[in-house]
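Appendix B. Chain record.
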Amino acid sequence: MKMYLALLALAAPSAAWAADSVSLTSEVLVEYVKQQADGSSRVVREEPKVVTPGDKLVFLLSYRNGGAQPAGGFVVTNPIPPEVAFSGGESEGAIVSVDGGKSWGPLPSLKVANADGSVRPATPDDVTHIRWSFAQPIEAGRAGQLSFRGVVK
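Structure tokens predicted for this chain:
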């Protein structure tokens, strides 16, 4: 089954900040190992045309404070597309939600209710959102990038 990248566009991040001067852009790349002519291999990231189950994806979220003042209270929340299994946040300080954004924490601290009422530890497949809260203001002119990984279901 092939899935077109348009389905992944539903995973657009949202941002909240104290100043309207911070811009946020997102990009999704497929990552794979490419064999070289000399027999070696290297990891390649490129814009996908079509993704299929098992493809490894890297979600990149770039931010920039284009204003003249530091921007405090900056938070980025990104939903995980239902067609993608979360496989980790690469940027420091990320927390996740397994209930559609109602509660947040490090994955090992979260629980999921089963249909029978019992509770189990949350797994990466349960993650519905990822969030970063900046402890320090983003200085004027500063740019950076956040990222997380997923695998197409």
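Further analysis of this model is presented in Appendix C.
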